[in-house]
Every structure is written in C-alpha cells, then in structure tokens.
Amino acid sequence: MPRPVVRMLAVATVALASAFGVHAAPAQEGVIHYTTGESKYPFSPAVRAGNTVYLSGQIGLDASGLGKDFETQARLAMDNIMSAAKLAGMGPENIAKCTVMLGDMKNWEAFNTIYRTYFQAGKFPARSAFGVTGLALGAALEVECIGYVTTPATSH
Fold first, then answer.
1. Longest C-alpha distance within the chain, in Å?
2. I need a labelling partner for 58 at 20 to 30 A (CA). Which of 24, 33, 104, 152 fits?
3. Average pLDDT by consecutive 10-residue portion of the chain (156 residues)?
4. Reduced to 3 DSSP states, what percent helix, strand and coil does the chain have, rounded to the nearest 5?
C-alpha cells in the first residue's frame, strides 16, 4: 500500500476512535522493580515493563522455611505470588498467565484444587504446568505469572 494511503488510514482511524470516545491508554515508559527491601536472592518479586508485570517464580517458602508438605507449599507459593502482585498494584484479576513447575506431576490435581481458590471461577489465567527434576531449595513446586495493569506506574 502506498505511504499516503497508509497515512490517511491511520489519520482516519484516530479520528473515528476520537469521535466514538475511544482513547488509547498512554504507554508507560521504563522498567520498575518492586521489592520488599533487601533480599538475599538476586531477583525482584515483581517487575513492570510498560503495562506488563512479570512476577518472579515463587516457591512454598515463608520465614520459617519450606512448607512441610505439598499442600502447604502450594498455598505458600500462591500466597507469595499474590503478595508480589500486590506490590505492583495488581490483584488476581490482573493476572493473565501462570506457569507452574511441579517436582512430581502426581501433584497436578492437588495443585489445581488449591489454585482454584485464588481466582474467580470462570476467570482463570491462561496456564501451563510441567514436571521438573529439581527446583530451588528443594521445593515441590514453583509458580510464576504475568499480569497487566493500566494504572500509572509508581515505583517502590
């Protein structure tokens, strides 16, 4: 298509969008790292690039260590994901995609039972799950997610 035609189409699209009250959200510039302070691990729990938020992989770990069984670790991992999301101003409704790494695929259904409680029924994120041969600190699972926000970026 000749350049003048492409330009005319672009101008017409913007004019129509304005006429119908449709406005593009301004692009967010830069990368923002959300942290909770000093960590002994070399990663941020959440990083925002534009309107996309990347939540680092979380395992079933709290101040006392790894959870004692799979179910406890699964709840802790999901709690940690939700805490990371909150740092970036997100809730579960903003999470678009999750990846779940399981040390034993036999725990897939047990994880699904716990995972369902963190999201509104019928509005689950897209998700992948796969078995792995090892995870950090000997964890039974790890969960990482990607979310989307439209609010202005603020750094922490």
1. 66
2. 152
3. 40 35 45 85 93 97 95 98 96 98 98 98 97 97 96 65
4. 35, 25, 40
Residue with tokens 């119908």: 20
pLDDT at 12: 36
The number of domains in the chain is: 1
Q: What range does the domain containing 75 cover?
A: 26-148
Are the CB atoms for 44 and 84 separated by under 8 Å? no
**29: which residues sit within 8 A by CB, 6+ positions away?**
50, 153
Give the residue carrying structure tokens 């990663």.
43
pTM, 2 dp: 0.79
Residue 131 backbone phi and psi in degrees, to 5: -85, 145
Beta-strand pair 126-131/95-102: parallel
Distance CA 128, CA 143 (A): 10
Residues 6+ apart with CB under 8 A from 120: 92, 93
